[in-house]
Queue: 2 jobs
Job 1
Amino acid sequence: MDLYAENILDHYRDPRHKGEGNEASISQSEDNPSCGDKLTVHLWIEGTVVKKIEWEGVGCAISQAGMSIFSEEIEGKSTDELLAIKKDDVYELLGVPIGPRRFKCALLCLHTVKNAIRKLEEKDPQSWLETVEIDKD
Amino acid sequence: MLNTDEIRRQFPLISQKGITYLDSAATAQKPQAVLDALEKFYKEENANVHRGMHVLAEKATIAYEGARKSVSAFLNAAPHEIIFTRGCTESINLVAKSWGKANLKQGDTVVLSILEHHSNIVPWLQLKEEIGINVKWMDIDNEGTLILNDFKNVKLISITGCSNVLGVKPDLKSIIKKAHAAGAKVMIDAAQLVVHERIDVKDLDCDFLTFSGHKLYGPTGIGVLYGKRKLLESMPPFMGGGMMIGEVTKEGFTSAEIPHKFEAGTPPIAQAVGLHAAIDWLSQFDWNDIQQQEQKLLLYAYNTLKEVDGVSILGDDDNHSSLITHHKIASCLSFTIDGVHPHDLTEIIGRKGVSLRAGHHCAQPLHERLGVTASTRMSFGIYNTVEDIQKSVEEINKAIQILKK
């Protein structure tokens, strides 16, 4: 399976849920300093459920298509459900092989969404080490 | 004129089918002569240096010190002014940690240029954190030419001899002259420059100059620091260990003479031998021929890339060809393509055997100054041809089709 599979290229050329997020409940920006990929996620939340997502960003096809694909899974989920998503769940959604050079591109969407929710819950943002599930010990 | 076909045959990796290597600014490929020298050393002469009376120790010491003589002749320096390190980064750190800590105090100013590689930025920012020096920056104009600061009350100017992103070469001689007139010392990061033109440290009159062996067709793990004798003699040791000592007691130590004062521990012996072989190999060519060939490649790459849809060449203010023909640019070109991230581009063309570098090339302040987060770089070595550029541009066009269709 090619990293640049048709679904990745399709979402890269025609991203879903892109928007400026006016009047969103919470907005959060994260980046991938080594590559320069940037994402900003806007969430509209009622109670504990995410009703709507919009996002903005610049970067490589993997980071931008990843966010677009992930954004289709967000609406209707509770914040706890979203916080419980693992990196392998994101890899499965993307459906392409993610190697050691590109895993941060692929996981930037998860990192940004989780930190948006943490910000809403007034918690400190989680580090990349937590997002990529590298044991800190 | 260089016989590029013959040169390519001497590089085992380059002469493989399906390899289009345009990333020599990151590291150069190695000619067979260097690989042979490494193998010969390990098979016939390997021992530790300056530490034994046996025959092999003598052979290894002669080989290691022979490498020092070869580097000193290459730069027109004296052998004791050549310190072997593990790379250009270590050489710069040596100057920052030894000369810097002994000679700089809070409020003193070190000037860098916005063209610098992180290895010539971070050691100075560390001194800023540790002792409170000021780090000031020289800016560039739209073509990448340095705009010189006033050097009054500056202690050190540390600048690149050739940008690893734009390929521009600052006018070193005039900067050094101006700096010395203001009482400042000058260090040249020659990591890129060393493989593109003859360097004469006496003629330049620089105080320090650094480079790595691996960009000069030599092995990794060997770097060089040139320093003027009096400066090196006045500096405290950098690392402590064997070889750098005169005498050690339970209470204290005295330092060895230069150059060994700065070479604690077992040095990169085989790597020094490999660097010697690389310098010998390169010395069979005339620098004018090397530069002429490179100028041809740079012009061809510039003119071809400019035709690619959405390409912007960094530092191109409509005067790039003239800068190339006047030897103001060497080594490389960097560019962006609208709507195509450099990592996607280089990954896709990489599968066709085309090696180009993508990212910020360890020069984030320069990318910020140019207003781009990342770029793609095409850089040249002595083995590259117009066909390499044609192949890479062909694959770049195909990648754009995939990403943007």
Job 2
Amino acid sequence: MSDFSLEAIRKGDKLALSRVLSRVEADDESGRTALDALFPFTGKAHKVGITGAPGSGKSSLVNALAHHLRLSVPDSRVAIIAVDPTSPFTGGAILGDRVRMPDLQNDPGVFIRSMATRGALGGLSDATLALSQVFDAAGYDYVLIETVGAGQAEVDIVNLAHTTIVVDTPGMGDDIQTIKAGILEIADILVVNKADLPGADQTYRNLTAMIEMGYRGTSRINSGHHPQTELLTSPAEEPRGWVPPVLKTTAISSKGISDLVSVIRQHRDYLLAANAWNEKENAALQHTVNRLVIEELANNWRQNLAPGQYESVMEALRQRKMSPRAAASALLAYNRK
Amino acid sequence: MPEKKIRVLIAKPGLDGHDRGAKVIARALRDDGMEVIYTGLRQTPQMIAEAALQEDVDVVGLSILSGAHNALVPQVLEKLNENGQNEVFVFLGGIIPERDIPELLAKGVTKVYGPGTDTRVVCQDIRAALADRA
């Protein structure tokens, strides 16, 4: 497709932008060319990831958040990438996040793009980073990335976003859930959404306790009953960097959203001051390059395989004459000749 | 490279609150391997066209049970054209009297479906329309 115009995209032509997003998502030749041309203009947008369990209110939170960002700084433009799962059986998908974003439908400063995971398993799709780069180059100040409803291990967002918000809700389990590895660990900001529901305070306390366990320098546990625990907090201790704050929100009535916005801005300031902004940016790019190298290697390998070779190794495997590892070695060794 | 995904926006313009039909169609298209963007109830033609633009869809499916199709559908078509999306196919489903159909087709609607339509027919029609264009 030859209708790619860098100029048009940078000037805010939504049709041009939308079409390029599709090409980039399809990862075809024109999409790759476009992304190469846009890349020099990237690196400015604040990429904020929003993740959490299905039904925890991510879309509603994104709606309230984007709305508030636009109201507080009317010049700023907000892009939203909302990811929903692709069916593993049919390849189809229902992308329903827009339903929860009524406040943004008539706002010319907001651009919402729904994406299907298309087989990726980490809570995003393979093209999510690339799409965020297109928005970044197009001059969007914020790119809010909503992951699929995440369980415990869909943590790809942390490789992409500057700020990761993990959304929890009341009634999702006891304090053992909060000390498991995985999704809660990746939070820069923890949000207890649906804070108007019973149990919200308990969830808030569990999450706060989890944070305090992890960041010893800030421990305030039982300070009333056991004053000696205060001694654990040495005044000479190094500042421990960013301690993820826990916030309560009720997205559908916008309660707590202005606090959330200020915390997001504080996190940005923190990242910039600690030089962590660039570190995150570089890590994300490195991650992408690594993934592309592996993809390319796999493609080359497949193309160079002799006809029938794969099938004969698989047959040996089926007959238990070869272990999976031996089979893999055989396929790679053949390829090297 | 996998075949290009067909992207469809399913929208309910106007004020009727019955979205069962829209959801059944959305589900059927999903099961046929398409990516379906569902936008919910009470959308204006402006909102539908804007969503179609941002999502770069191939097809817009409108569900109207209120009888306001003669007013709403032309507005959706007009807004899509204004945004430069004249190549997007518009399909319409709902309670649409026979006598209104020729006019709607003349204005640019690709197909009109009534109650009892086999969802497989809708999937086939979408694929056929896109194949013709390519």
